[in-house]
Structures are given as structure tokens and as C-alpha cells.
């Protein structure tokens, strides 16, 4: 499908979107650097033309993401507009992928552009030669990863795999040069099995493990050609086999991969990497192993693995985080200062009332600390675990525990209910 | 009597300590629930995390006292002197603070839910992040009104609070939650309300001259007869707001959303309405002398008897508008 055809299809989708006017406003501002509220003016430009302007104005998803989110940052309703910005980015990103697949000049062009325009974006690695068949494969893989709906989460996983640290900032993630990252990972993990094991290990340490397992499966599928071209397929892993049902039983110490059809049972003891110094990583250490089943397709046409239903359409629609509502709910049932100290202690270090930290505490608004807690902990269970543990270590543990309960209760509506 | 003796006597069942001299005492964390400290001298005392719920502190001297984290829920603090007191993260839910002197006090992240603050003087107080839902700051008489002159109220939560007739000139309420607040007849002149949420607020007859409303949300606000000269409402959202008889001379309304507003008899002379959206606005007898209406959208607006003869009307969208003479606009 050509870029023009795709833009036409996106134009139709956007025109029928519930928030079509806000989408227009965002795109208009990203193109003209001017915020326009007048509906008539906004609607003067037909959707396909507007999208075309946007697409050709920004040479890649990274630049587009920077521009769109840059606009959002200046708005009042940032939550609402962030979601719309993400929709725009998700819709247009695959088009850049199509472009990359169409031409092997992709990398060279991008490198030139960034060198001229800015040092902000990561330049492509000098060791990637666009004429090299391996590099072409990497570029194709990067484009395919980029085209995925969950490409931001894929970037998170791949970044963690390479750098042993978890990156949450969408802007930073979008700046990652995927081709370089994949090239580096190929060198670090010379076989598909090495890659798969390491990826499984990262996923096993995440709190949203179920969701990330499906994403990891998609990554494995997409990077297949990287190893297919260089190494013989591992018969145990079924590269040449019919679809395999893979059961991952993960504990912090071990990963079991079981192929039911071939009766091959691999058990690999893995020492998890020490990631404790990275606070953004979620460690939900459960004694009960989680079992996830999904098809590991062996085709090389980059058809993404079918994500679990939860990923396709979220069953639970979460309300927008209401900072006033959360603060009110906490204050009603707990001492505001104890609750603030608890939130501060989790996000920084344990606060002691006889210390000289009062000024630091005063400069951090309570609702900011609560919002940061919500952002930091991706599951309610994990948040509760952290709140309880920290409260027990503070002065006045009884009151701090009460504060922990109040915070947990106030935040619960903004988390997906645990199964 | 020293702090320990006070605590011992209280623990033994004594609760009456009227006019007790307790200045500078260290009573941090003390359990003094329901104690009677009427007219007591507690200046500069440390009462951090003290339990003072339902305590009687009427006319007590708490100036400069450290009350951060203290629990003063339902305490009686009428006429108390809390000048320069530190109430960071204190809980004052349902407390009676009528006529208290709270000038220059710190009420950062404090809980003032349903507190009675009528006639208090909060001038120069820092209420950043405080929660005042359902609090009462209503004016009793003209000479007995709450004063919040120069108070810092950033991100404050006043949803549903009653601030009728309150004095809030130059108050900083940026980013505050002011949904459904009653500001009827209040003085908010030159206040900073940028980015605040005032949807459904009652502002009738309030003094809003020189207020910074940039980017504020005023949807459905009741603003009849407000004095809003030289206010900045750039890019503010006023959809459905009631602005009948509003005095809005020299008001900045560029790119504001005025969809469905009722501006009947409002004075918009010399106001800047560039690129504002006035779709379906009711502008009967609105006075637009030398008003800059460049690029405004007047689709389906009702402009019967509006004074537009000296307004700047270039690039206006008139589709479906009812013109001053009662006729429908034709190309």
C-alpha cells in the first residue's frame, strides 16, 4: 500500500473520530506552530492534505513524536491530548516503516538529516552499511518493529535488554535508533536462543508480565530473519516446525520452555540480572509461577503474533487520573502530612522528622508526589506492597500504615483490577 | 507548669486549661484531644503531630506555633491568633475558624474540608495544595468578610466552597480546582486564575477586573453583571457561560471559546476578540464599540440590536447569524 493510500485511510479514520476536532487542532499546530481554535479555519483544510503536510514535515516517527508531544506539553488538557497524540503517532508510524521498506537509502538519508538539523537524535551507527545484506535485514526488522501497535513497549523491552535499565520516557524511547539497537543486540546475543532467553528474563521481572510476554513473542517473531539468515534454526525451538504452544513458567530464578507437540522440555536455570538499582523497573516477586500460553508462529512474513484479548481491546476503561479527587480521598482518611511523608519516602528515601529535610518536603506538592507514585507503580498490587513496606519503616508506623491504606484506596480506581 | 506536667494532668483527667501560659512549650505528638485551651498562650509552641481534635482553642494565641501534621479536626478556633503559624499538612476538617487571624500562616497541603472560615483573615497565607472542599468563607457582613488578600492558593481545591463576597484581590489561584465555587460578589481583582478550573462556578457581580484567566476553564460559569474590565481571558474556555450585563471593556478574549455564551447587554467596548469562537452566542444589545472582532466566528449568533457600528469586523464568519436589524445574514 502506498503512503498516499495509507494517508487517505487514516484521513477517513480521523474524520470519523469522536475527537476529530482536537485531532485537527493538534496536527494543525504541529504543522504551523500555531494553535487554532476556530473550527471553520481548522476545517478549511481537507483531512488528507493536513495529514500529508504532517507526514512530509517530519522525516521519521521520532521527529513526529517530538513535535506532537511538544504541542501537548503546552496545553492544559495534557492527559486528553496525550492520548490523541499517541493515536496520531500510532497511525502515522507504520507509514514511515513502509517508506523504509521501500528504500534502502533510509538510513543514509536519516543520518544526513539529523547531522544537519540537530544533535539531539541518535545518529545511525557508522558500522551499519546500507548495502550490506545484513544491514538491509536489520533495517527491515526495525521498520517492522516500528510498524507495530505496541512499538513503544517493544522499544522499552529492547532498550532494557541492551542497557539493563528501564526507560519510561516516551520521548527518549522514540529517539532510540532501532536499527542500531538491533545491530548491537545481534552482536550481544549471537544466537536466537540467547536473545530469547535474555528477553524472557527481562519480561519475567516486570509487573505487567502477561502483557509483555505477548510483546516479547512479537519481537521474537519479527527478529527471526536476523538469525534465520545467519544461523541454522534450532530444531528444539521449532523454527521449521509447525506452530508450537509455548508455556512459560517463570519464577525469579528459572524459566521453563515446554514444547507440547514435540515433547521437548527445556529447563534453563537463569540468574536474574541485578536490576535493583533501577527504580523504574517493577519487580513483582510472586511465589506462584504465572503461566501464559500463546502461539509462536514460525513464519518469516512478520505477521504479528495474536496478542491476548486484553491487549486487543482493554476490558476495563480506566477513569482519567483526577489529582484533586485522589488528594481529597487521602486527606479524608489519613493525616495529610504522614501521607505526604510516606509518598516522599517511597519516591526518594525514608524521611525522618528530626532531619533537615523539611524544606525539601515543602517544595514538593502533595498531589505531585501522589501522581508520581501512580506513574511509578504500574500495578495496584505493587503499589500496595511498596506502601506497606515503606510505612512500616517510618516513624509512627501505625499512622503511616493508615496513610498507606488511604493512598491505596484512593488510587485503586485508576488501576486495572487484578485478576 | 511545664509541658510534661500539662500532659500528666491531662492524662489524669483534667481538661480545663483556660488562659494557661504555655508559650514555647514542646508538645509535639501530645495527645490532647478535647482539651480546653481557650485564650491559652501557645505562641511559638511546638505542637507538631499533636492530637487536638475537638480541642477548644477559641481566642488562643498560636502565633508562630508549629502545628505541622497536627490533628485539629472539629477544633474550636474562633478568634484564634494563628499569625505566622506553620500548619503544613495539618488536618482542620470541620474546624471552626471564624474570625481567626491566619495571616502569613503556612497551610501547605492542609486539610480544611468543611472548615468554617467566615470572617477569617488569610492575607498572605500560603494555602498551596490545601483542600477546602465545602469550606465556608462566605461574607457575613461587609465589615465581617474573609480576607485572602495576596494569599497563595495555587492548586488549591475549593470545589463547592462558599466564598460569597470574599476578599481575594491579587490572590494566586493558578491551577486551582474552583468547580462550582460560589464567588458571588467576591473581590478577585487582579487575581491569577490562569489554568484554573472554574466550570459551573458562580461569579455573578464579582469584581474580576484585571484577573488573569488565561487558559482557564469557565464552561457554564454564571457571570452576570461581573466587572471584568481589562481581564485576560486569552484562550479561555467560556462555552455556555452566562455573561449578561457583564462589564468587559478592554477585556482580552483572543481565541477564547465563547460558544453558546449569553452576552446580552454586555459591554465589550475596546475588547479584543480576535479569532474568538462565538458560535450560537446570544449577543442581544451587546455593546461592541471599537471592539476588535477580526476573524471571529459568529455562526448562528444572535446579534439583535447589538452595537457593532464601530467594531472591527474583518474576516468574520457570519453564517446563519441574526444581524442587529433582526435580519438573517446573507452573502
Q: What's the short story on this structure?
A:
The complex is a heterodimer of chains A (419) and B (331). Chain A is built from 20 helices and four strands.
What secondary-structure arrangement, pairings included, does this model have?
The complex is a heterodimer of chains A (419) and B (331).
Chain A: H1 3-15, H2 20-32, H3 39-44, H4 47-57, H5 61-73, H6 78-102, H7 106-117, H8 133-147, H9 151-163, H10 170-175, H11 178-188, H12 192-204, H13 209-228, E1 244-251, E2 254-259, E3 264-269, E4 290-296, H14 309-312, H15 323-333, H16 336-347, H17 358-362, H18 366-376, H19 380-393, H20 397-411
Antiparallel strand pairs in A: 1-2, 1-4, 2-3
Helix pairs in contact in A: 1-4, 1-6, 2-4, 2-5, 2-6, 5-6, 6-8, 8-11, 8-13, 9-11, 9-12, 12-13, 15-18, 15-20, 16-18, 16-19, 16-20, 19-20
Chain B: H1 3-11
Label this structure with key terms.
heterodimer, A: 419 residues, alpha+beta, 4 strands, 6% strand, B: 331 residues, little secondary structure, Pectate Lyase C-like, 1 helix, 3% helix, 0% strand
